[in-house]
From TrEMBL:
The keyword Transmembrane does not apply. One of its GO terms (cellular component) is centriole. The lineage of its organism: Eukaryota, Metazoa, Chordata, Craniata, Vertebrata. PANTHER family: M-PHASE PHOSPHOPROTEIN 9. The gene is Mphosph9. This is MPP9 phase. Keywords: Coiled coil. Gene3D superfamilies: 1.20.5.340. The keyword Glycoprotein does not apply. Residues 54-228 form a coiled coil. InterPro entries: MPHOSPH9 (IPR026636).
Length: 228
């Protein structure tokens, strides 16, 4: 089975229906074969009644009865084996469906995490650009502050205002730096979750492959038993 066929419930339903129909045909063929054997033996028994002695008839009758018992036992054994294989086949199909659902859930989670990582990367990039602009502005203010301090000792009021503005800008810069670190930590955590999700997806794929291999083996054994 290809990966696309396994994921298509319509194809899987058709495959299961074909298997059931094939099993039913094989069982019908087996019954028809054994019924034909029994009918042939009965005809031989009736013919032997006309031509054989009483002792010969008893032996033939016993042999035919033993043969009928053997055929009935073989038919019952084949039916039981086919039923067991069908039960095992159904169990493996349920396991494959369960693992497929888990695989889809993990895949969806992985997609959501990937989208969140992309959003956080974009946001982080914007904040990096903002921090760069603030650094440049801070450097300009520092240079202006130094020039103003050297050129004018009598402009204390202006210097105080510029110093206050400088402190405010410095606080804003530190706040953005902390926020930037928090965003980086969150991004690292999300990337780790994504890595775990991808690992789990790989494990689920291997498990599904094993279950599909077991399913193929059971179907192969079933076909061999039915041909036998």
């Amino acid at each position: 089975l290809s990966g696309t066929s396994v994921e298509d419930p319509v194809i899987m339903s058709k495959i299961r229906q074909n298997l059931r129909e094939k099993h039913a045909r094989h069982i019908a063929d087996l019954r028809a074969y054994y019924d034909s054997e029994i009918h042939s033996l009965k005809q031989q028994l009736e013919a032997s009644h006309k031509t054989s002695s009483s002792e010969d008839l008893k032996k033939i009758n016993q042999n035919l009865a033993d043969r009928c018992d053997q055929l009935d036992a073989a038919l019952n054994e084949a039916s039981a084996r086919i039923k067991a294989l069908e039960n095992k086949n159904n169990m493996l199909e349920k396991q494959v469906a369960d693992w497929r659902e888990r695989f889809c859930a993990v895949s969806n989670t992985s997609k959501v995490l990937q989208e969140r990582i992309e959003e956080m990367r974009t946001s982080n990039k914007d904040k990096d650009n903002t921090i760069s602009r603030l650094k440049s502005r801070l450097q300009d203010l520092e240079e202006a502050f130094e020039k103003a301090y050297k050129l004018s000792d009598n402009k204390n009021t202006r210097l105080k205002e510029e110093k206050k503005m400088f402190q405010n800008l410095l606080g804003e810069y530190e706040s953005l730096g902390k926020e930037h670190e928090r965003v980086k930590d969150t991004l690292n955590t999300t990337e780790n979750k994504l890595l775990d999700a991808n690992t789990q997806i790989s494990d689920l794929k291997r498990t599904i492959s094993k279950l599909e291999a077991q399913l193929k083996q059971v179907e192969h054994e079933n076909a061999l038993k039915l041909r036998h």
